Amino acid sequence: MSNKRIIKDTVKKHIPQRHLSSIRIMYRIAMETIYGIHRTGLINIAIVAAMAAILTIFGALFRTSFSLSSFVDKLGDAFEISVYLKPSTDPVYMSSRMKEIEHVKKISIITKEQAWEEMNKDIDVSGMENPLPDTLHVTVDDPKNIAEVCDSIKKLSGIENMSYAQEIAKKLQTLTTVFNTVTILVLIVVALLTIIIINCTIQLVIQSRKEEIEIMRLMGVSNWYIKIPLILQGAIYGFLGAIISLLPLNTVQNGLLKLHNFLNVNPPEFAMNTVVFCIFLMAIFFSASGSMLSIKKHLQV
Questions:
Q1: Model's pTM, two decimal places?
Q2: Which CATH class is domain 80-164?
């Protein structure tokens, strides 16, 4: 007996039989999965390419939505409400009152003396009486809350007038809402397309192996042994499509980082990691779901 045979027999003695049986089953399932992919032939390329394309579209929109949120937050800090006080109003007292209003993030006090001094730097107004009012610059936590904060400030006594970039704030809020809605719609389309593509693919595999599967059933092979390779085949398509989609997504990521640097806005933390995780999770889950739907519809096991 050769040394190789002796070593093999020695190893087998130290491995419980139930473990050996599980390993053999796992090996056979893996081989059945690979065999199913091999029998699909060149269609595999089209399936993976289609998966990569739709995942890339979703990933690009999803990643861009993170950056858009950062830009909105940065611009929101610039959307200050300028509150002009009446001459008899104490700016410090009014500032403390406004801080109690919900969604107020920060308040800066610009006294009429400070404003007059700044004006003197640009225009020679010496000899004139200071006509400027005390001003409070109010920053809100979110641009969409500007209107609500304005309504609350108007109820306070001692307010002469107020102003803010109302139209810009509304347009920015509308843009964010539209973009987030489009991202959700694309997610739904990605899910449907993935399930349909994998469903049709697994249906072809089932039809090509119909006689083989019938023989396996007659031999008493368990249902899960027939199902799992088909489910794994669909999951592998999703996994490969997700990997390929990372190439164009990396280009999108680099472009957005350059835009962040240009606008001097910090990029969102863990944005790309979150996008990649969601893409792989979606691709594998929806692909496996498509396989299971096809099995339930076309394979009575």
A1: 0.65
A2: alpha beta
